[in-house]
Specification:
Oligomer: single chain
CATH class of the largest domain: Alpha Beta
Strand content: 15-25%
Strand order of the largest sheet: 5-4-6-7-8-10
Radius of gyration: 20 Å
Number of domains: 2
CATH topology of the largest domain: Rossmann fold
């Protein structure tokens, strides 16, 4: 991009090395980031409203009767993963629900990471009745782990993802998730970049808010009357 002398760059991913950021700014090329705000006149940040979407998800589960909710985060070296985890814990507290540290497991935003994290939860003596995930790939991995354990979604566990990737609509059953609209991200990223390069703009857009909302599909339902690990394990082994 530097060789092609681009006028601006939107980095639509999470996590970036400072050295890359410095290269763009040394050339005075405007840059738009996700979540990470740099104090520089040539940069803008798109801030995702994680809290609104996750709070909506927790309220949805609580309204269905879930009192025991677990969470599988992304890699906590990423600011976005840490923010999503904090939003989940705050949402539990605001709904009068207690968090169990054993049910909050760090994943890596991959299918394998979701499967492995869910297997850790299933190895515990006591299980939550619902699990929220930091992204949809993790949630799909969770679905696979539950399938391997002969457990059903949402009969045995309710499940919520985050991002609403295209695949989420086609899992079996279709995944309930928090939508972060890609079109909204793209439009606001372009708007911020143009505000830096248009000659008639005196004040560039340095920040934009990205809304989120819960998309209810078929992986959430009422909890079992008594979610007993030994009872379900016995049924799973038949």
């Amino acid at each position: 991009m530097l060789e092609r002398k681009v006028d601006g760059v939107a980095i639509m991913t999470f996590g970036i090395q400072d050295s890359l950021f410095d290269r763009f700014l040394a050339e005075k090329i405007p840059v738009v980031f996700m979540d990470v705000a740099y104090s520089h006149p040539h940069s803008s940040v798109l801030s995702v409203d994680y809290r609104a979407g996750i709070l909506e998800g927790v309220r949805h589960l609580s309204g269905l009767g879930h009192q025991s909710i677990g969470f599988i985060s992304g890699p906590l070296r990423l600011r976005s993963a840490t923010t999503r985890k904090e939003a989940f814990l705050d949402s539990l507290s605001s709904n009068g629900l207690e968090s169990n540290p054993a049910w909050v497991v760090e994943g890596d935003h991959t299918l394998d990471g979701g499967r492995d994290a869910m297997q850790k939860i299933l190895a515990l003596p006591e299980w939550p009745t619902a699990v929220m995930c930091s992204n949809d790939m993790t949630a799909i991995g969770v679905q696979h782990a539950l399938f391997e354990a002969n457990l059903k979604v949402p009969e045995d566990f309710s499940l919520i993802g985050f991002d609403d990737i295209h695949l989420a609509e086609y899992t079996i059953p279709p995944l309930t998730t928090v939508r972060m609209a890609c079109v909204d991200l793209a439009q606001k990223a372009v708007s911020c970049l143009l505000s830096h390069v248009e000659p008639n703009r005196t004040t560039p857009e340095t920040a934009a808010r990205i809304a989120t909302r819960l998309i209810v599909r078929q992986t959430t339902g009422h909890p079992r009357v008594a979610l007993s690990e030994p009872a379900i394990t016995a049924r799973a082994r038949r």
